[in-house]
Amino acid sequence: MGYISRIFARQILDSRGNPTVEVDIITDRGVIGRASVPSGASTGKYEAVEIRDKDKARYLGMGVTKAVFNINKTLNDELKGIYITDQITIDNAMISIDGTENKSRIGANAILAVSLAAAKAAAQTSGQPLHRYIGGVNANTLPIPMMNILNGGIHADNKIDIQEFMIMPVGADTFSDALRMGVEVFHTLKSVLKEKGYSTNVGDEGGFAPNVKSNDEAIELIIKAITKVGFKAGQDIYLALDAAASEFYNEKEKKYMMSKGTQKMDSAEMIKYWTKLVKKYPVVSIEDGLDQDDWEGWVELNKTLGGSVQLVGDDLFVTNTQRLAKGIVNGAANSILIKLNQIGTLSETINTVQLASKYGYSTIISHRSGETEDTTIAELAVALNAGLIKTGSASRSERIAKYNQLLRIEESLGNSAAYYGRQFKYSH
After folding, report:
1. CA gyration radius, the chain
2. Which of 57, 90, 241, 350 has the least C-beta neighbours within 10 A?
3. What is the model's pTM?
4. Is 205 annotated in the active site?
């Protein structure tokens, strides 16, 4: 099947103009697998570590030449000769070479780029698309897009606490229909914001970042856009939120600083806040509604809302099987966000998805705020039949690239393509 002949890395730029790692793996048969890795802005403290140069004289310290060197020297030397289809062997070898708990020696950005490039080269060698190579004959589910159309929190310079306001077109029959519905609402939201005199500039993930006055106003503007297009909020399209609560949690005071610090809440008050919001609006998914270390709060939140709302652990679980296992045992959350660069290898990512599925947790394959044109997450969403994807708004080409790849996959699957929007567990 071919083996690794050479691994070559380079420094490229991500969607925010920051350096990131891109890797080419060349096999003895001349097949080339290329992958690039994303980077997050709102990052959990338990994520695998990306290596940055920290040389302020170059790219303001954000360079990745150390990670590139680790690939071109260490990983290239150690992985040569391994069969390209031996994904687990390749990934385990890198984990062993790194030898740290959080991939901080070689760098999760270096390791992930090699892991994904290997999978792409293997898929080409076997003559299969990536989703089929990873997922086998049952890889046929197109995901519900959780489209981020309005931003607050760390992603925007406004008064909104919640980081992402997303729409979920569950009332569509196909992925392409769902995408169309999302796009129509996105463009209509632009006109709704303009009418109100708000800015229509977009943030890192392509969502609008207007200076609206509150979380409630943001939701109401989105519902207005949904209605204006001719859809029904709470029937055709539901809302999903990413609170990114760890970003506004004050560890010293053990309080959540809402309304940009003017309102302090403890865990119990935050749970009441989410409960009230869910009763008031058609919200079916809340991501990181509490801090990454507030395990007791998460258990209580799940008891209160877990039967009716998807409660997604991002910073809480960081795509890590050990943290997810703790959540399963304790009854914290009922869903996990999957970000490849939080854990650092493809095989570990797949292990996490399999563990989540085994215990009834939904899985959402996700982008990061600093993205590239690499479309691996679109392939992975279908490969693992995840059923849900977060890849940003209907603007910015690094986000659109993933949507376009899903359209191509849907086309290639033909009649076997499935879209389970109407069967989404938490829609009514």
Report:
1. 21
2. 57
3. 0.96
4. yes
